[in-house]
Amino acid sequence: MRKHAVKILVLCFVLGITTQASAKQLLSFHGVLDLQAESLDVNVEVSPDETIRGSFRKASDGVYDLKVDLDHVKVMNYDLSTEIQSRIEFRDTNIYSSEMIVGRIWSNYSVVDLKPVKELSGTFKIGNNHLVLNDVSFGALNTSGYIDLQAPHKLDVGINVNFMEMEDFLKFWMNTENYSSSGQVAGVIKATGTVDRLNLRGNLKSFDGRIKDMNYDSLALNIEGVYPDFQIDKSSNLSRVDGMSFSFDGPIDFADRKGFKRQLKNLNISPLVKESASQKKWTIKRHKESGADSAELKYFMRKEGSIGSQNEEEAALFGIERVLEF
User: Fold this and answer.
1) Three-state SS for 172?
2) Which among 164, 162, 145 is positioned nearest to 78, based on CA atoms?
3) Which of 27, 116, 156, 194 has the fewest CB atoms below 10 angstroms from its CB?
4) Are 169 and 183 a contacting pair, CB within 8 Å?
5) Beta partners for 198?
């Protein structure tokens, strides 16, 4: 028997499944551990409606197969059902370093909130107390980086968001809130620091979407901070379907879910101004859905000494133009 192989993997498996429950929840499980055959079968009842079944088998010398079935298990407020499989290989590197574990992971029949998603796939390795993730993807998320397995568990992980549904994205951040929304989110999230002090930096974009009663053409969100306290950068902006475009910035606390709407109202909001060589322009448009009539209010400021003016030293001009169409 490979030294400590079963002990290590059983410990990792038990730690993994117990994290699905809260710290106050007591899980009951039963199973069979065969040290001679190097195999494990275990069933865990998280709740009457949530079950986890796992099996661990030796495939050949130093190679093991792991299978975990999740049946309607609640993960971060999501209902997850999936069959996860992994092939794990123990490799001896050299006399100066410890044993390394390399593996491939994939899933079948994955369903999140009763909707099918892109299956889990990727590779990983464990060595020198580091877990390294190589192009591990599930659903709309793709992850690469490392996590230190020793306290304080340092990490450096990059997450690519590949057109994730806005509703699912907001549910992930707001946890218990269910915001009516549409559209998709794409971008990059960088996670560094330690598990108990997680620094996140996100650069995200969304187009032709809606969050509750607010429709928008485009949304750019640049945010950074130590979870759950973040600072939205001034480069963040939103363009609405009625023609209003503005940038916004300020602090936001994702732990204060009840006061989230109030926090949004307290953000610094500045209208975006179009600028050319001769003038600055800001246009507000509104369109009624019931008809083709519209109203347009245009503000513009001609720069001092603008090209083509009759007097190159004339003062800056400010004007207002109204347009009505019926």
Assistant:
1) helix
2) 164
3) 116
4) no
5) 193
Block mean pLDDT (10 aa), the chain, length 326:
47 46 61 83 85 89 91 86 92 68 94 93 90 94 93 94 90 70 94 94 93 86 93 91 81 83 84 60 49 49 47 47 47
Return the closest-CA partner of residue 29 out of 43, 19, 41, 17: 43
CA distance 26 to 18: 9
Question: How many angstroms separate the CA atoms of 56 and 161, rounded?
Answer: 32
Q: Which residues contact 40 (CB under 8 A, 6 or more apart)?
A: 6, 9, 10, 13, 31, 32, 33, 34, 54, 55, 56
CA end-to-end distance (rounded Å), the chain: 84
Judged by DSSP in three states, 10 sits in helix
Q: Within 13 Å and on the Cβ side, how many CA atoms surround 61?
A: 1
Q: How does DSSP assign 236-271, residue by residue?
A: -EEE-TTS-EEEEEEEEETT--TTHHHHHHTSEEEE
Strand partners, 203: 188, 222
Helix (H) or strand (E) holding 11: helix 5-18
Identity of the residue numbered 232: I
In terms of Cα–Cα distance, which of 53, 46, 110 is closest to 82? 110
pTM of the prediction? 0.73
Which residues, including other chains, have CB under 8 Å from residue 70's CB and lie 6 or more apart?
A: 52, 80, 81, 82, 83, 84
Q: In the chain, what are the domain boundaries? A: 1-129, 140-270, 273-326
Kindly report the backbone phi and psi dihedral angles of residue 240, in degrees, each rounded to the nearest multiple of 5, phi listed first.
-95, 160
Asked whether the bond before 228 is cis by omega within 30 degrees of 0, the reply is: yes
Q: What is the pLDDT of residue 231?
A: 96
Please choose, from the candidates 69, 160, 62, 168, the residue with its C-alpha nearest in 3D space to the C-alpha of residue 115. Answer: 168
Q: Tell me what pLDDT residue 23 has.
A: 45
| Rounded distance between C-alpha atoms, residue 37 and residue 208, angstroms | 57
The rounded distance, in Å, linking the Cα atoms of 168 and 76 is 11
Whether 166 contacts 185, CB under 8 Å: yes
Query: Do 22 and 39 form a contact (C-beta atoms < 8 A)?
Result: no
